[in-house]
Amino acid sequence: MSEQILYESKARNPSKREWANTLLQKLHTAIESGKTPEEALETLTLRQYDFLVDYGIDLDEFILSPEQRKNIGELMKKGAGRPTFPNGYDKKYPPAKRAFFEKLTDFIIAEGGEIADRPKCNYRDIDFTLEGVHYRIVYSVPTKK
Description:
This protein is mostly helical. The protein has 2 domains: 16-78, no CATH class; 95-138, no CATH class. The chain contains 6 helices and 3 strands. It has helices spanning 16-32, 37-42, 46-55, 60-63, 66-78, 95-110, and strands at 114-115, 125-130, 133-138. The protein has a 3-stranded antiparallel beta sheet, with helices on one face. Strand 2 (125-130) and strand 3 form a beta hairpin. The longest helix is centred in the first third of the chain and has 17 residues, at 16-32. It is elongated, with a radius of gyration of 34 Å. The N and C termini lie far apart (84 Å).
């Protein structure tokens, strides 16, 4: 008689989708048995909970009512927004830069130039017209090499 090796068939590991469905089924079964959604989520281990979150399963459907989910959706659409300032943001520019910029504008006016109006001075560039020609001077600090 020849020697035969019998292999035991191992059950394959479930795919991520199958594992997620198994865990969700576990949650639904716990809820149907009378547990609250919070208690049903507590039946999962931390690793199982993290897996569902990382896999992209929305666990809010178990905890929140439809009205609460709707309100959260509206809040998420609005976003946090940026803070608003009634008079605009008042950036503090270095005194030397401000002084140089003001002397430059005084010089241009003294030479007969017209400085273009800006809603807010940024102390970085200046647009002006001198003898019918439009100019722009940009005042910047080069980066160190």
